[in-house]
């Protein structure tokens, strides 16, 4: 349904370093790195960061919430660990959660500008 998404960042170089580390466990790679934007994806750029030097930090409790699929619990854990290591803020530690129609394992972080990013994997019921 959605082809791609983009978020604004104040410092493109710092945000690229952050997203390179955060996206690695999710299998997203940098396809394009220009002077004012960077595009990540699996087969083509699906997630863009765009330079907006005058951007005010996104206040907690506002803005967008972007959820990305992870292949495993370990990938969600690595996503969260890398985000915190590279300057992001924990907005919900890795763990099992109950959604409206299913349970899942996920973690929430805020990037360097306050954008809320989640990684999620769906747990298989025990046989």
Mind explaining what this structure looks like?
The protein is of the alpha/beta class. The protein has a single domain, classed as 2,3-Dihydroxybiphenyl 1,2-Dioxygenase, domain 1 (Roll). It has two helices and eight strands, in the order βαββββαβββ. The chain has helices at residues 12-23, 73-85, and strands spanning 5-9, 29-33, 37-41, 47-51, 65-69, 89-98, 103-110, 116-121. A four-stranded mixed sheet has the order 1-4-3-2, with helices on one face. Strands 5-8-7-6 form a four-stranded mixed sheet, with helices on one face. The mean pLDDT is 93.
Structure in a nutshell:
This protein is an alpha/beta fold.
Indicate the topology.
Layout: E1 5-9, H1 12-23, E2 29-33, E3 37-41, E4 47-51, E5 65-69, H2 73-85, E6 89-98, E7 103-110, E8 116-121
Parallel strand pairs: 1-4, 5-8
Antiparallel strand pairs: 2-3, 3-4, 6-7, 7-8
């Amino acid at each position: 349904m959605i082809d791609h998404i983009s978020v604004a960042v104040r410092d493109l170089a710092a945000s690229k370093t952050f997203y390179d580390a955060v996206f690695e466990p999710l299998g997203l790679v940098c396809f394009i790195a220009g002077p004012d934007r960077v595009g990540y994806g699996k087969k083509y750029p699906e997630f863009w960061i765009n330079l907006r030097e005058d951007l005010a930090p996104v206040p907690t409790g506002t803005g967008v919430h972007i959820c990305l699929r992870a292949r495993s619990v370990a990938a969600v854990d690595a996503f969260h660990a890398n985000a915190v290591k590279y300057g992001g803020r924990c907005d919900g530690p890795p763990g099992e959660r109950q959604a409206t129609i299913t349970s899942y394992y996920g973690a929430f972080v805020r990037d360097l500008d306050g954008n809320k990013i989640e990684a999620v994997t769906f747990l298989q019921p025990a046989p």
